[in-house]
Amino acid sequence: MKFLLDFLFRALQLFTEPYFLLFLAAVMIYLLRRKNIRKNLRTGITISVILITIFIGNGFLGKITSGYLQKEYINSAEMKVTGAQNPVIVVLGGGVVDIENTEKLHTMSYSRLVTAYQLYHEFRKNNQPCTILISGKGRGHISEAELFSENFKKMGVPAADIIKEDKSMNTYTNAKYSNEILKRMPPSNIYLVTSGFHMKRSVALFQTFGLKPVPQVSDFIDTEITLFPNSYNAAFTFVMLKEILGIGQVKLYNLLGINK
């Protein structure tokens, strides 16, 4: 059953890809034309596609999805470090880019790196031991965990305070493999660092494994309502739509008991 549901959600994800939607619209118009469907219907479909494109590109849909994904975490950047027991900062990888055969952290990864370090620094400033657990393999030759670790060390974090989880390839395995490590550690307060649009799904998946992380958002994205559609609005809207679909998948799998 899980295999079929995985396939279904993979197929649904195509509808959050702009090129697929344009391709689908073109195919529909072509088929309707070949079947001699009346011109009014073809015109209606064409106008609908244009209106949807405008709605996405103008930022209206992005504003709605941005609020749903990020609103509850706006104040999570206020770091609360008092009273934490054996704090562990779990930071999720945000991607790696390859420039001239040199692998570097993606821009989004740097915001997570800085937020995790700021939190770590607050704990250490209060003379409280703290561990940073970096989760992410990525698709490069060097893991996200390794690249994060190198940067943390340059910022002054001792190697003894860093744990690398370098097997996970997605948010589900971030939670799964992080949980396996955390279970071997003393009871801890867990602080989860990731981007705002990604936090709701991340928290849901960590909770699936019985963890109760404190959200620490590293960055936010939003769209701007504009008169004319633009690629900036469209790109971020599709990113957030894909995230909402992922949240639906987590909730359904949890309801069916097939997420572990």
UniProtKB/TrEMBL annotation:
Keywords: Membrane, Transmembrane, Transmembrane helix. The chain crosses the membrane at residues 12-32, 44-61. CDD domains: YdcF-like. The keyword S-adenosyl-L-methionine does not apply. The keyword Membrane applies. It holds the Pfam family DUF218. GO terms for biological process: Gram-negative-bacterium-type cell wall biogenesis; peptidoglycan metabolic process. One of its GO terms (cellular component) is plasma membrane. Residues 88-246 form the DUF218 domain. InterPro entries: Cell_Envelope_Assoc (IPR051599), DUF218 (IPR003848), Rossmann-like_a/b/a_fold (IPR014729). This is YdcF family protein. It comes from Chryseobacterium phosphatilyticum.
